[in-house]
Design brief:
It contains 17 helices and no strands. By secondary structure, the chain is mostly helical. Among the domains are: 73 residues, no CATH class; 68 residues, no CATH class.
């Protein structure tokens, strides 16, 4: 028995009272109309859909089953048998319900989307033997993909690798799985997926900064707690050279500052007044002589220019033009002769080219060596230049010969910090002093504290702010 909404409704709508009931608006229409029969019919239809269709429309074979068993025992439903998951029950759909949308949109294939006229022209061109490169590559790719799919059927069905044609523990590079794809397609895909690696970065290791400095440098043999005499003397000599270089730098600064000025016997004020009052007499005489000479030269040039203008006439201009023409003609002839002679000296040209190639090779080798030397040191990444760590040395008197009495030299933290700077991992840094400016306190006068008879500048009270 089906339960309808009309039976469950506590306040069912009143039946229409014929023509006397008002139905002028929606509210009165709903109030004075009985829809219980319609709701009952719809509920029955929904129930039939859930069950698998109405029993009236079903054939007898679907409703009745002929029992052909001869006293066989029925199999009990065991709980261990696998059952379909309930979470997928809605995906299967209702057994008797029809698809509400009869005509669904389907994504057309590539061949179906092509214009029939264009498709006919393409088919005729393929029959004639005219196939585009893009189409050839596409068909080739499809054949290879189908072949690969056929080869991996067993692996995909069993989810186990059946063919071991590589070394599991070796460092061999895996073959590219996209060999069948064109290079342009690979680049396009990598660029749009953000996985494109430029050619320059492929050769370079990702974990290096381009330096040839080792992470941990091997210390000098003379820095041992019990070094040999030669190694210790060599280390002392290196430390002495470093100190000498420092002294040279200091002396250079001294020469450019203090030593440029005269000693204490120099009377600066007297000589300054004397020089500024006198002036330089020699320069004044030279200046006057230079001015007189320049005036004379200008007058001579003006006179010569006037004479030249008078002398040069039409004939001279014509002769000059003819001479220029002949000079250009001779120059062109000489150039053509040189070009003809160049053909005859092929051997010497080859020798010159060979010498040039050797010179370029030498230059390239020198440049590579200079680049290697440069990469052994630190690059200037900031405003400060890199300075090597001071040599950790022990004088001859301080050598103990055993680790028990040895005093530590240097700092391990500083050593690692300098190593990072030398390998260009961090920039060269210098400790900065933070200077706090002491701001002056503001003072002001309040008019309420003044009486009017105080002298100017007198402040009876200056509060601090």
């Amino acid at each position: 028995m089906t339960v309808t909404m009309a039976e469950t409704n506590m306040n069912p709508p009143k039946k229409s009272l014929g023509s006397g009931a008002s139905k002028k608006n929606k509210k009165s229409w709903r109030k004075n109309t009985d829809i219980a029969d319609i709701e009952e019919f719809l509920d029955e239809k929904r129930f039939d859909e859930r069950v698998g269709g109405s029993f009236e429309d079903r054939p007898d074979s679907a409703l009745f089953v002929v029992d052909k068993s001869k006293g066989e025992k029925k199999k009990k439903n065991s709980r261990k048998d696998p059952k379909p998951l309930k979470c997928f029950a809605n995906l299967l759909g209702l057994p008797g319900a029809k698809d509400p949308i009869k005509k669904r949109n389907r994504t057309k294939l590539l061949d179906e989307r092509v214009n029939p006229i264009v498709k006919d022209m393409q088919d005729r061109a393929i029959k004639a033997g005219k196939v585009k490169r893009k189409r050839r590559e596409a068909t080739k790719a499809r054949i290879e993909a189908a072949k690969r799919k056929e080869e991996t059927i067993l692996e995909r069905t069993t989810r186990r690798r059946t063919k071991f044609d590589f070394n599991l523990w070796g460092d061999e590079e895996k073959e590219d799985e996209d060999d069948w794809m064109a290079t342009d397609t690979k680049v396009h895909t990598a660029k749009n997926s953000g996985k494109l690696v430029p050619r320059a970065t492929k050769a370079r290791a990702s974990d290096t900064t381009g330096t040839l400095c080792p992470a941990v440098e091997i210390p000098h043999a003379g820095q041992s707690y019990n070094p040999s005499l030669g190694d210790h003397q060599d280390l002392l000599w290196k430390a002495a050279i470093v100190e000498m270089d420092k002294e040279k730098e200091l002396s250079k600064i001294e020469r450019g500052t203090t030593m440029m000025f005269p000693g204490s016997g120099y009377k600066q004020e007297e000589t300054y007044i004397q020089e500024m009052s006198e002036g330089i007499k020699e320069l004044e005489k030279e200046g006057e002589a230079v001015e007189e000479e320049s005036e004379e030269e200008e007058n001579d040039e003006e006179k010569e220019g006037v004479k030249c203008e008078k002398l040069i006439g039409r004939k001279r201009k014509r002769d000059r033009r003819g001479r220029k023409f002949e000079e250009n003609k001779k120059r062109r002839e000489m150039e053509s002769k040189k070009e003809q002679q160049e053909v005859m000296r092929l051997k010497s040209i080859k020798k010159e080219l060979k010498v040039d190639d050797e010179m370029t090779k030498d230059r390239q080798e020198k440049r590579e060596e200079a680049d290697k030397e440069k990469r052994k040191g630190a690059i200037q990444l900031s405003n400060y230049k890199f300075e090597n760590q001071e040599l950790e040395i022990k004088l001859s008197d301080e050598l103990t010969g055993n680790l028990r009495n040895l005093k530590a030299e240097g700092s391990l933290l500083e050593d690692r910090f300098k190593s990072l700077q030398k390998r260009n991992v961090i920039e060269t840094r210098v400790p900065q002093k933070i200077v706090k400016k002491a701001h002056k306190r503001k003072k002001f006068e309040k008019k309420s504290y003044k009486m009017g008879w105080e002298p100017k500048g007198y402040t009876p009270f200056t509060p601090k702010v």
